[in-house]
Amino acid sequence: MEFDVKDVLGQIQGQLQKIDNRFDKINDRFDELQKEVVEIKVNVAHMEGELKGEIQTVSEKVDGLNKRVDTQDFVNRAVISGLIVTLLAGAFKMLFPKFFGLIRIAIANEKINPTRPELEPIKVG
């Protein structure tokens, strides 16, 4: 078997040219993929920014609602406390109706407040 060196080198050159063409195509595909990856990263960064803004907005709304609930809770406690005090005072007055009369008599007799001599002593009996 005899081969001409020029023919063999020509075949090798042809094969190398095919391999170079394939590598060029692969490089082009990698470049396209790299561009797509960069676009995806930019989109992800943009979406993260939007989500952070929306999360902050929702957080502010929740804080506002918490303040409203706290205020309403305070008002409710005050109203309930007032009702309880009123009910207790009414019950006390119903159970001990003469108690307030005795206090008035004691004040009039200067047992509690000796600085009011203008009140006349009230006689019990």
- Counting H and I runs of at least 4 residues, what is the number of helices? 2
Chain-averaged pLDDT: 83
What structural class do the secondary elements suggest? mainly alpha
Poorly predicted runs of 5 or more residues: none
Total strands:
0
Largest sheet: none
* Helix proportion range: over 70%
Question: What gyration radius follows from the Cα positions, in whole Å?
Answer: 49 Å
Task: List the helices and strands in order.
Answer: HH
Per DSSP, what share of the residues sits in E-state strands of 2 or more residues?
Answer: under 5%
Outline: rod-shaped
**Terminal Cα span:** 153 Å
Describe the protein.
By secondary structure, the chain is an all-alpha fold. About 80% of the residues lie in helices and about 0% in strands. The protein has helices at about 5-95, 100-110. It starts with a helix and ends in a 17-residue tail after the last helix.
